[in-house]
Amino acid sequence: MQVLCKPSDKSPDVSCPVCNKGFLLYWERSSKIQQLATLPEIRQALREHHEAPGFISHPDADFNIPSWSGLPQFSAAALLGGAML
Ligand SMILES: [Zn+2]
After folding, report:
1. pLDDT in tens, 21-31
2. Residues with CB in 5 Å of ion ligand 1
3. Total domains, the chain
4. What angle do CA 55, 25, 34 make, to 5 degrees?
5. Residue 73 belongs to what domain range?
């Protein structure tokens, strides 16, 4: 399932396990059970950001997990999750 991550300092839904940066999450599906099941995948993706060569920081702009080749605002997660973009 696809998730749109928006960097946020205020009451984030998930924090990076490495640097503790917070992100708000917009889900493709609204099922709480599926969302909880996807959280480890999101933390793993955030950890992988740090392992990328030349890592400086997480993207300042919205991004999707798993990564999406289109514009973030047109992803299913953004549209169905109701992200205000
Ligand atoms: Zn981090």
Report:
1. 999 999 988 88
2. 16, 18-19, 21
3. 1
4. 115
5. 3-81
